[in-house]
Structures are given as structure tokens and as C-alpha cells.
């Protein structure tokens, strides 16, 4: 593996069965537009070109772009950084969907995912290959040690599940870690109606930024508010399903707690209290 490709974190998918299974998750039709991230040597591209109406492939490695364009003349192969590409400009074809499929480089998987979530209103569904640990964190349910800000800030906008694990032998060269396919379906609206989306994101990141602290102290430190949120939250108590000392129990959407006060209400109180 060249030093440049090592720096890019490139491990090319070579297993056509895995490629077919990934594409099956989003089941593209001739009415759909698919954006492929990191086509590499074209394992996913071949399957997408056969099934989708239009395919845009984003490849950061200039050395691969020309070969992909020659091999797949019907695919729009662009030399582009998937972290910065303008997904918001995508428009669904009449009667079709916008889908995103990709084998994301391990080194930039989380920034690419963040860019896709920011552009979620232009996207219907995604199937993304990631390092297994990252995929499991995204799809983690409340209460575990893998559950955190990445889980909440993805599940706030998407249904998320780990569809399958992929062994190192499916790639060339084989990575030293296991991969997994993350399947995301974008929701029509966030699970929680937010007063201030940016502030909500800040609160969530602060809550999980220092896991050894109590939730109140982590919020106070992360938000720079100087006192425990429990002293000025307009809540008579921490609701069932929440524990002041454990951020891992914060549910990402209404209905996860068992009490009468919904998670959405609590999020709104947090937003108002931290202002």
C-alpha cells in the first residue's frame, strides 16, 4: 500500500457479495439518484451503475478518478473531498429518492458522517461502511458505554442500525480492524422538536465530554455555566430513565423514558436553562 493511500486510509472493497448486500439495503431503482462516497476500485460502483438511474461518485484520490470514469462512462465521477462536498444541493428526481452509499475511509469516517447528517434534508437513506466501533457507537441504544453524543446526534435525525459486520478479508489491503455497514433512514422531522438546534448539540457534547463527572458537573464544565444545571432546571426532579450521575441514560427521543415527562420536554428545559 502506497504511503499516500495509507494516509488516505484507503482499503478497497473487493468482495462483490458484500458490495451487493450493501446496495440491497437501499435498493436503488432507475428513479433514484445515488451518491457514492469513496468508489476506490469500483466494487460498489459496478452494482450501483447497474441498478440506479443516476450515480455520482466522489473520489478524493486523483489517481483513481480517470480509471473509474473510463470503466463506468455512465457514472459522474468527481474528484472531491466528501467531507466538504455540498450534499444540500442534491435534488431528488421526480418520483425518486436521493441515496448515499459508500465505503468511508476510517480516518475521516466521522467527519463525513457529520457532513451527511447536516445535509439530511436532501437525503432519504444511507448505507455506509465504517470501522465497526464507530458504526456501533452511532447505532448504540441508551444505557451502554458505547452510547454517546455520536449516537444521540445521529439518532435524533435518523433510524440507525448496524446491518452487518464485514471481515478484513473483504478488502484489499486487509485493514487491521473489523468493519461494519451502518444503515440510516432519515426521519421526516427530528425526534425531538428543538428550540435551538445548535445549543442542543452543545449540551449533548458537553454531557458526554467528561464521562467520569456527574451529568450536572459535566454540563456545567462543558457549557461554562458555573453551576449545576440541576439547581436551575425547571424540572421538579430528574425524570425516570435519567440519572444525574450518568449521562449514558439520556434517551435520544421521546418515549425512551418511562415517566410522564417526555425526553423532548427535558431537552427543551435544558435548552432554556442554559441560555
Write the layout of secondary structure elements.
Layout lengths: L2 H6 L3 E2 L2 H11 L6 E5 L5 H9 L2 E6 L2 H10 L4 E4 L18 E6 L5 H10 L6 E7 H8 L9 H7 L2 E9 L4 E2 L6 E8 L10 H13 L5 H9 L39 H11 L2
Helix pairs in contact: 2-3, 8-9
Q: What would you say this structure looks like, in words?
A:
- The protein has ten helices and nine strands.
- It has 275 residues and is an alpha/beta fold.
- It has two domains: 3-186, Vaccinia Virus protein VP39 (Rossmann fold, 3-Layer(aba) Sandwich), CATH 3.40.50; 197-273, no CATH class.
- It is globular, with a radius of gyration of 20 Å.
Keywords, separated by commas or semicolons:
275 residues, alpha/beta, Rossmann fold, 2 domains, 7-stranded mixed beta sheet, two-stranded antiparallel sheet, 9 strands, disordered N terminus, disordered C terminus
Amino acid at each position: 500500500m502506497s504511503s499516500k493511500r495509507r494516509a488516505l486510509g484507503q482499503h478497497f472493497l473487493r468482495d462483490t457479495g458484500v458490495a451487493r448486500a450493501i446496495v440491497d439495503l437501499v435498493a436503488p431503482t432507475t428513479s433514484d439518484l445515488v451518491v457514492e462516497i469513496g468508489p476506490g476500485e469500483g466494487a460498489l460502483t459496478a452494482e450501483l451503475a447497474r441498478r440506479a438511474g443516476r450515480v455520482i461518485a466522489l473520489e478524493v484520490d486523483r489517481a483513481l478518478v480517470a480509471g473509474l470514469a473510463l470503466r463506468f462512462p455512465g457514472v459522474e465521477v468527481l474528484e472531491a473531498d466528501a467531507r466538504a462536498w455540498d450534499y444540500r444541493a442534491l435534488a431528488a428526481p421526480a418520483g425518486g429518492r436521493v441515496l448515499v452509499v459508500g465505503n468511508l475511509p476510517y480516518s475521516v469516517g466521522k467527519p463525513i458522517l457529520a457532513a451527511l447528517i447536516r445535509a439530511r434534508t436532501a437525503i432519504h437513506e444511507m448505507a455506509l461502511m465504517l470501522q465497526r466501533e464507530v458504526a456501533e457507537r452511532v447505532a448504540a441504544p441508551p444505557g451502554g458505554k458505547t452510547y454517546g453524543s455520536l449516537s444521540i446526534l445521529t439518532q435524533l435525525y435518523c433510524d440507525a442500525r448496524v446491518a452487518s459486520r464485514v471481515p478484513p478479508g473483504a478488502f484489499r489491503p486487509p485493514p487491521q480492524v473489523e468493519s461494519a455497514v451502518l444503515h440510516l433512514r432519515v426521519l421526516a422531522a427530528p425526534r425531538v422538536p428543538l428550540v435551538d438546534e445548535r445549543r442542543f448539540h452543545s449540551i449533548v457534547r458537553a454531557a458526554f465530554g467528561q464521562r467520569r463527572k456527574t451529568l450536572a458537573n459535566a454540563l456545567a464544565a462543558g457549557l461554562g455555566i458555573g453551576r449545576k444545571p440541576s439547581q436551575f432546571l425547571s424540572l421538579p426532579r430528574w425524570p425516570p430513565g435519567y440519572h444525574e450521575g450518568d449521562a449514558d441514560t439520556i434517551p435520544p427521543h421521546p418515549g425512551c423514558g418511562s415517566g410522564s415527562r417526555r425526553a423532548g420536554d427535558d431537552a427543551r428545559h435544558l435548552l432554556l436553562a442554559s441560555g
